[in-house]
Prior knowledge:
By secondary structure, the chain is mostly helical. 34% of the residues lie in helices and 7% in strands. It has a single domain (8-107), classed as Alkaline Phosphatase, subunit A, CATH 3.40.720.10. Helix 1 (8-15) runs antiparallel to helix 2.
Amino acid sequence: MFFLCHVKRIDSAGEDGEFKRKVGLIEEVDWALPEILSLKPDVLVVTGDHSTPAALQSRSWHPVPVLIRSEHCRPDAVLCFGERACMSGSLGPRFPAKDLMPLALANARRLKKFGA
């Protein structure tokens, strides 16, 4: 089971330069995670479609944090979710977006073969 949840209001708050509102909306998503996990998804991916820092009031070139949770993920030492923390995670400081879906499918054991 896969879920895709896009919270446009978070993007909008960043594009409007409203830092506190953006933080509040991200915290609302944090509070919803236990309910989402209670549905027992095979894989949970938490990320964004692009970076929208409130300081720039627009989309930016900055890396977007990615979290993958599944029964088959290898844990790393990262203990929180954010831009700086994710740069130290097992996916590395820059993770190509084109690799996200194959990695999610592999963690769900939906690929016959992963890699070469």
